[in-house]
Amino acid sequence: MTVAKPLDWQRLLVDGYEPLKKAQRVFRRLPHDPRCMLCQNPFGGIGGKLVGVMGRKPSRKNPNVCQSCFDKLPSGGIEIDIGVVFADVRGSTTIGERSTATEFAARLNKFYATASDVLIHHDALVDKLIGDEVMALFIRGVAGPDYRRKAALAAIDLATTVTDLPVGVAANAGIACVGNVGSRTVMDFTALGDAVNVGARLQSHASPREVVLASDLYALIATDHPGARAERVEVRGRDEPVDVAVITLTADTG
């Protein structure tokens, strides 16, 4: 009997794990969101019921990943270069004050659904949907060798697509530790490190209808999106400022 080699982080996140890619191609065709952030297995709707009988239900330790994927993930993680996108609804406190709780939740749910669709279309892993913020990872083993360019394009596409809420978007890239963090009972597949922290700070610098890209990411898409404003952003807690390009969206953007 042939024993399968254990899945390791290098195969999964850098080389590209072929069984996972095949699962993504199949599961993307099945309704319904939300989905496993790794294999795109649907958790809701008819699709969720169909695959649920095969054990592909949300993990108790991390509801963003299905039991089948999460149980196969090794502990720990690996340091790799990634792209990261953050999007945040500006003025959400005021929006919530002027809406009923149900209306506010409905608007945020629509934002989550739209953001997830856009990001997944660009081969992202939707890491977190927290409060009024979305975080997504672009990893070579999942998004392909042009994962950095996809992060920049996804940020612009997301800001262009969400038109009913004031959203600020940013993208950054760099070395991060990607893997499982947490305790034995509660684990989270995520990315940690300076690249992620800077991405979050850049997002806070983006005004509504603006996309803030790290300058090296903007260089990858500058031909298609010329005219960005060059700035140097002071990042709290960091010695060196960050060079960025700020794209202001217009009715013709996209």
Q: What structural class should be given to the helix and strand makeup?
A: alpha+beta
Note poorly predicted spans.
none
**What summary fits the major beta sheet?**
8 strands, mixed
Instruction: Indicate the proportion of strand residues.
Output: 25-35%
How are helices and strands ordered from N to C?
HHHHEHHEEHHEEHEHEE
Count of DSSP strands = 8
> How does the overall form come out from the CA principal axes?
globular
Compile the SSE list and pairings:
Elements: H1 9-16, H2 18-27, H3 45-52, H4 67-72, E1 77-89, H5 92-97, H6 101-121, E2 125-130, E3 133-139, H7 140-143, H8 147-161, E4 167-182, E5 187-192, H9 194-205, E6 210-214, H10 215-221, E7 229-233, E8 242-248
Helix pairs in contact: 6-8, 8-10
Task: Describe what this molecule looks like in 3D.
- The protein has 254 residues and is α+β, with helices and mostly antiparallel strands.
- The chain has helices spanning 9-16, 18-27, 45-52, 67-72, 92-97, 101-121, 140-143, 147-161, 194-205, 215-221; strands spanning 77-89, 125-130, 133-139, 167-182, 187-192, 210-214, 229-233, 242-248.
- Strands 1, 2, 3, 4, 5, 6, 7 and 8 form an 8-stranded mixed beta sheet that branches.
- Helix 6 runs antiparallel to helix 8 (147-161) and helix 8 crosses helix 10.
- The longest helix has 21 residues, at 101-121.
- It starts with 8 loop residues before the first helix and ends in a 6-residue tail after the last strand.
- The mean pLDDT is 87.
